[in-house]
Amino acid sequence: MNKEQIVKKSLSATKYTVVFRVLSQATSLVVTVLLVRALSEHDYGIYNLLYSVIGLLGMVASFGLANTLQRYIPEYYIKGEFRIANNLYRVASIIRLFSNVVILGLGLIFWELIASYLKIFAYKNYFMLFTLIVLLHMQRGLLETCLGSYFLQKYSQGFSFVFVLIKAVGYALAVMTEMDLWFILIIDLLAYSIIFGILQIIYYKKIPTSKGHKQSINRDEKRRLIRYALFYNFNDTGVGLLNADFDNFIIVMYLNPVAVGAYSFCQRITRMIRRLIPVNYLLDVIRPAFFSLGSLTDTQQINQFYQSLIKLNYLFNIPIFFFIAVFGEEFIKLLFGGKFLEYCHVLTVVYFFSMINAFQMPVGLVAQLKEKSDIILYSKVFAVYNLIADILLIKYFGIWGAVFATGTAILGKNIFIWYFVRNEANFRGMGKYFLISTLFWGSVSTIALVIKCFILNDLAVFIICLIMFTVSFVLQFRCNLFNQYEKKAIELIANKNSKLSFIAKFLGIQIA
After folding, report:
1. What is the pLDDT of residues 443-470, one digit of tens each?
2. Where are the domains of the chain?
3. What is the pTM of this model?
4. Are 363 and 425 contacting, i.e. CB atoms less than 8 angstroms apart?
5. Closest CA to 33 of 188, 171, 199, 189
6. Do the Cβ atoms of 25 and 281 come closer than 8 Å?
7. DSSP 3-state percent helix, strand, coil across the chain (nearest 5)
């Protein structure tokens, strides 16, 4: 594929990703609401403890497989080397399956010891069922990486929506029939089984796995892959320790499953909102396009791309943070029936750290492009800080300790990586953007607080201010937040699509 073909495929993949991700995330909101309402606070905590096992597996036995596929599969596809790309995927799948079976088997063998610490001794049957979900989840992740690298988001994202839809129907049934945690896990297993089977068929039907000039990967290339994978194996261990899911194990040791449920609730809402941000749900398109074109791009262009991603990310993150800070309580009351209402301020702080760390994805892409796997690995020293801080702070400050420890650890890690790629990923000239955006949304939030003081009905004030924030979101584009290069790039992309062109003109994103 040449540059023009990559751009064409990227735009097509973007279209499908936008449509299906919007549908998926909207349905995910419904799924989250149904899940919280279906389970007791205790069972919701157990559910999140079980799903934390996925992060734990990624921490102890990832072997850098997912990151290696993300980095090199697009490169092989663009060169037409589908055979060796398929061989790499098969090897990665076998290694992951075997390692996961071993780790989960050890978990069952030493169940009595582990369960006593995690306070889930009575849930062994639930864990045995959940092991099947874990295996399917991990294999599906590798498969979707390959599909996304070939710009088959039409299928990978389409069936991701079907996956969420199956869960939504199942959870709704659970609410209506007052089913318990066991039924919820059955629904999850059914959804994973159906979607993984379909995606596996699509992979072999749509990707020409037998084509290519090379029969196998040469010795030098193997060294390159192994070096990259080994660095990311240790890197993923650090990622696991920095993951909020790991906090759940420390929280349950000091507190109880209900506290795990509350902390997971705040983290889940934050992740759900974060996934709605276009830059994040377009990552499966941005990543392969960036890696395919990045090697042909100079430092200045990489930095311009980086700054554009930063701006697009914070265009959404800043207003969402202000909205949660002002209306977090009403949000929980109306959507979740008041469950975990006393933790609404925890939700605000969790999202604050999420907003501050929103440059993580762009800086991570640049670091991967420049093959700074060693730097990414060294940054995981902050995982050690997070572990120590969790143990010390959760004991004395409960959930607040976990929020502060993980938030500051991730921030430290991101700044560390940024320092070593700052030539290709700097913030020069962006001070004006952040100043204008903060002042704008600070003013909107002040008006919202005044309205909140005079209107006492939660539903009425929530709807009025939601409309106000929506209108303000459109108006912020009139504040000259984009530079000439970014406007030109937007105009170039928009000219290829009449709908995008209309949106650009409506938002006032035009070259002066």
Report:
1. 999 999 898 888 878 888 888 888 999 8
2. 1-241
3. 0.73
4. yes
5. 171
6. yes
7. 85, 0, 15
